[in-house]
Amino acid sequence: MGLKLSRTLWVDSATEHSGSGMAPTLTVEPAGRCCWDEPVRIAVRGLAPEQPVTLRASLRDEKGARFRAHARYRADAAGHLDLARAPALGGSFAGLEPMGLLWALEPDRPFWRLVKRDVQTPFVVELEVLDGHEPDGGRLLARAEHERHFMSPGVRRVPVRAGRVRATLFLPPGEECFPGIIDMFGTGGGLCEYRASLLAGHGFAVLALAYFRFEDLPENLGDVSLEYFEEAVDFLLQHPKVKGPSIGLLGFSKGGDLCLSMASFLKNITATVLINSCVTNTIVPLHYKDMIIPNLDTDPRKLKITESGLLSFVDIWKNPLEEPNNQSLIPLEKAQGPFLFIVGMDDHNWKSEFYAQIASKRLQAHGKDRPQIIYYPDTGHYIDPPYFPPSRVAVHALLDKAVFYGGEPKAHSRAQVDAWQQIQTFFQKHLNGKKCVKQSKI
Known about the structure:
Layout: E1 8-9, E2 25-29, E3 34-35, E4 41-45, E5 52-60, E6 66-74, E7 81-82, H1 100-103, E8 106-107, E9 123-131, E10 140-149, E11 156-162, E12 165-171, E13 180-184, H2 194-200, E14 205-209, E15 224-225, H3 226-238, E16 247-252, H4 254-265, E17 269-275, E18 286-288, E19 291-293, E20 304-305, E21 311-312, E22 339-344, H5 352-365, E23 372-376, E24 393-395, E25 402-404, H6 409-431
Parallel strand pairs: 3-10, 13-14, 13-16, 15-18, 16-17, 17-22, 22-23
Antiparallel strand pairs: 1-10, 2-4, 4-7, 5-6, 5-9, 6-8, 9-10, 11-12, 12-14, 18-19, 20-21, 24-25
């Protein structure tokens, strides 16, 4: 982890001491620098035996929006409290949830989603211990600041403006070459770097790729040309720090069906991970050379509005197995390598489970291996890296309206932890056997 600088702050000793005669202390281990996808151990010492306390966490994103969580606890007979052993007695969550103060963070501003925009700076989490079980009324006993970074020590961030390609490349530390991955998000557009930067900390060269609403790229998602993505594949494969002769793809939502098309039509792609993706081309037509794949049609009459006034898209998409909708199906049987489908069973954006099953049947019907599919119960559409608060509701970037995306917070949070490891394992298995055939001079 490199140099560790403790950021733990103790309340001035003039504050009233607990029955132990010592001022309580709040510690976070590992102290100092820690990456967002790493768990930490939060503990309080110096409390009175069986003392009831409330722990609070808060952070501000780059736009100043505040997120908060709290939970009630009781110290043990020795006046110690270890969140890895003590269950929360209520608050933002309940039960044994050592990282609950992070994944249960909720925005003060309604429907605001926690996103890291500048991965070169950390989120600073403020932690507080209050006497008693009133989250806003108890006496402050101890506090600490905890920095959660998005780039492991030694990871390099390289802006990419090569030809038409607009992206950021994240390179792990070291002299050797690394397995290459292209990482894409959905209809929010722009350049999302937080997943790529974290993944690079696990030994992958990851290209976070924008395809609209960024710099000189189109402002709106119009017809998409696969040649743009082919250029990105070529760029990554030609980089001296990237292992050949092939790369992997990681795509979420609309970025997922683009990855499916890339794997099906482009060369040198041998491992593809799809997070809650459709098996058809969606939103806009896809062009490649003299071919056009139409987008899957929708029926706006089936748009639902929840009791809370939120939109639900899940039923608007037409069945891709029926005529003429099947014209939008992506011929994934043409792909060279294996697939991993990450599926939230409570995805309210579209029927991710149904689409993954279509993909599996289609591959097997063409004599291909069955894809790996991991189903996560009570998990919604936005499956992020670990400890991000589940985005059950968010404002849709194209519609500017609040949309319900599904998921039960505790189950969704567990799914994010597991899926993150499954993604790494899949890429390590299918990309790490390759050899570096280039001499790195970078």
